[in-house]
Amino acid sequence: MTDANGTESEMAKGSSSKPRRKRSENLDLERMRRLYHAMLRCSRATRNSTARMRLGTEVPALLDLRGGDLLVTSEITPAIQLLAGGRQPLHVRLTPTSASSLPVQLGVASGIAFRARAERSKALVTVFANAADRASWRESLRVAAEHKLPALFFLFSSAGVEQLVADAQAAGVASMMVDASDSVAVYRICQEAQVRARMGDGPAFIAAYAPRSSARTNPLQTLAAFLREHKYPVDEWETGSSRRSVSRRRPARGRAATTLPFHVITIQR
């Protein structure tokens, strides 16, 4: 990933979506356990094939968001609902963001990010979009870079993202392409991009491309294979997750209200 000064950050080293062979500091046991549990839970709740493939990006992008952070999206998927604190997943049919709604979505996200920056709250704004309208993206990325807004922009697309990545880099926004189904690659990117944004170093643009249907992989299976190859105790985690799933289905009594992990704004037209 290239930063605003044109230098290569740790995110960019080996920037293909293939995972590295050895563990790095942001792939420790606890982080990988949390990622696997979240992927397993969201995969079980997701029926739509396109939404399931996007889990490789949605889950790692949202996993470490905090109270006060905000997601601006055009649709609520089961993964978004579960990770935002919901208990009953929705089953949705994903529809493309219209070109007319994209400027509104990006404008709302930028406005919230401006306020977060002014208040020095270290809150982060994340955007999930699937419309590649170049004019809208160029202007929003230019503004975000100029003011170093605490924002992460995710574009889900199957084609035509190369030019937008080039536009983002030209605007001074750290940017790269990644396989939307590769949760390990996305998690590595998000670990660094979120820290940079919170510290005032500016936004990031991540183009999560979706392989053609014939080449699509299951994000959960891909993650499990990576973890087993690197000797993580996947089978033990899966057993523990199944026990917790049974426990969650039991009626809870006297449970105190908890703070939601992050807030969600949905913009549709």
Full CATH superfamily name: Thiamin diphosphate (ThDP)-binding fold, Pyr/PP domains
Largest sheet composition: 6 strands, parallel
Secondary structure: helix percent: 40-55%
CATH architecture: 3-Layer(aba) Sandwich
H/E series = HHEHHEHEHEHEHHE
- What number of structural domains do the residues give? 1
**Low-confidence region ranges:** 2-7, 12-25, 246-258
Name the beta content range. Answer: 5-15%
Radius of gyration: 18 Å
* Major sheet strand order: 4-5-3-2-1-6
What is the CATH topology descriptor? Rossmann fold
Total count of strands: 6
| Backbone shape | globular
Number of helices, where a helix is a run of at least 4 consecutive DSSP H or I residues: 9
Structural class: alpha/beta
Mean pLDDT: 81
CATH class: Alpha Beta
What does this structure look like?
The protein is an alpha/beta fold. It has helices spanning 29-45, 49-62, 78-83, 102-119, 134-146, 162-171, 183-198, 219-229, 234-249, and strands at 70-73, 125-129, 151-157, 174-179, 204-209, 263-266. It has one domain (25-244, 258-266): Thiamin diphosphate (ThDP)-binding fold, Pyr/PP domains (Rossmann fold), CATH 3.40.50.970. 45% of the residues lie in helices and 12% in strands. It has a 6-stranded parallel beta sheet with strand order 4-5-3-2-1-6, with helices on both faces. α7 links the parallel β4 and β5. The chain is globular. The two termini are 33 Å apart. 43% of the residues are buried.
